Amino acid sequence: MSDVPPAMTAPADREAASASPEQAELPEQAELPEPAASPKPAEHPVTGDVALRAAYRLCRRRTKEQDPAEYALIRLVPAALRPPLHALWAAANALDDLGDDRTAPAAERAARVEAWITALHRELPTGASPDPVRHALVDTANRWRLDLSELRDAMAQVQDDTRGRDFTDWAQWRTWGRDNLLPWFGQVRTVFDRAGVPVALRLDTREAYEEFLDGVRLTDILTDLSADLAQGDLLLPAEALDLYPGSATDLTRCRWSPAVAALITHLTGLARQWVSQAALTRGMHPGPATVLQTMAALLHAQLDAVDAAGPALLRSPPRPALRTRARILAPARARAALAWSLSPLTVPPPRRPAAPRPPAPAGRAPTGTFRRPQPHPSGERPPEIPPGLLPAHVAVIMDGNGRWAQQRGLPRHAGHHAGATAVREVVHGALDIGLRHLTLYTFSTENWRRDPEEVDAILDLLRGELAENPFRDLDVRLRWHGRAGRLPPDLVDLLHLRERTTRARTGLTLTMCIDYGGRDELTRTAAALAARARAGRLEPGLIEEDDFARHLPHPDMPDVDLLWRTGGEQRISNFLPWQSAYAELHFTPGLWPDADRRDLWQAVTAYTRRQRHHGATPAPAGEPAGADGPSAAHCVTAPDAGPGD
User: Fold this and answer.
1) N or C: which end of the chain has fewer CB within 10 A?
2) Better-predicted residue by pLDDT, 58 or 353
3) Is 447 a catalytic residue?
4) Could you tell me which of 417, 453, 401 has the C-alpha nearest to residue 641?
């Protein structure tokens, strides 16, 4: 590593650049032919933009020099798709270089990373940057319509890593690795989507995909073990190190020992198991499938090199022989050429960022915090509720969308669109008062019985809201509760994307119940318990409530303190029956699209006046409310309707 990290250098790469970014791909031996039906890549909108062309060429060259295997994989895709992939790889690597530059103290490295992220945030609306890597990334984001806000937490993690990392177990290690890798791989998948070759993952392969990336991360750590140890990093979980007593001490002293040798053999075996995901590419377009299969083969070759290195592993990174790489890549190029020749590509035309452009933060705000919601238009301020009286978990049955539309002579789907605005308002209100958990009954298992046109409209609305990501700048962690089997795969993909990119946030946890049913949840939990008992891991006669709770699909979801239903109905409609066993019930006559944050505040304020005692003796008159226990709620009668009506 040089004294000055690549990302901090001035844009002074003086390469001759007389072609567009796409044409910057110079011909090499075994060049892939262009897909027959692909349109010719368009020139950059600014004629003679030498700086932009040089920026793409720089990203390409750095990819080739710093990661030959990654460069070889990118060459398995058509030339038109390579520049955005080079830009993404170079940006991720530039950030890592800033965080890893041990010539600077940790505080200075963290400041450099934050400055890079802040500059990217500032430059996205302009479409340009004085830094060549960011210049290519900004152009890629605008040209391919990438939402770089999805990289917020992955980029911020690099800043956190400057303080060092220690992992207790594999679960902690996986969370760290996936939070870093998944968003970047998600951007690559989006590029393929924009080109008309979607890389949709089947519902049964999602865990295989994440485990594959675990294998990528572990292989990378084993390869770079010598460099990491030289700068005092040991990026392996204690759970693995403890299996081989003394290995951690030996590694920190760069000493090869039988314990270290056994540990490396164990870890390469794990990595091979994780990258061997044959089912992952089944049913996938043959172009991306070839890339993933070749990537797995290269990873296996790299792991062979790690195993063969022995003590040299602690002195320098091992590399597979050129002959081994050639044996993998030659047939892969032939397969890729055939696969892409059968698929027309859609190459987006050059575009400048729209003006004005909504904020698209790629990292934390310059202050290091998320922004607060805008105040309510009326100027009304949230109530001051003592933390001890605030419910930890509020669940909402958003009833009345269809009736709201019918009362106005509008189609029912118009009510759902109005209801989406109410969702944003109520989320803002939850943040205003410091609520920790908000769960919304968005689409029930029974809602499939509605008119197909209305169901399609609801699912399209969910897609739109998830794509727009209205809470991207807020400290909101999004979770999804429900079944995946009947939902469209692209919608499930978006839900998982939002879960991944917000999982590190610590403010409000917003759970969207989509294709959710309470009885279905209980049935699945019972099946999980039965399977565990059948395997001999649980004694049926000793099953207790805690056992049942641990086998729920979301065992960490806290019990509901307050269940609020709009629309005048007085039933819970198969919503969170386990978690709501002792919830306070709050029914209001207004229809959901008319709700805003003030209605949430009123519901929470009413909750603070309840006495809760869970079947124990009620508190004597005059004692403060909020002790603990069920209490009758105010009931309002209204015409019969189902959830979300």
Assistant:
1) N
2) 58
3) yes
4) 401
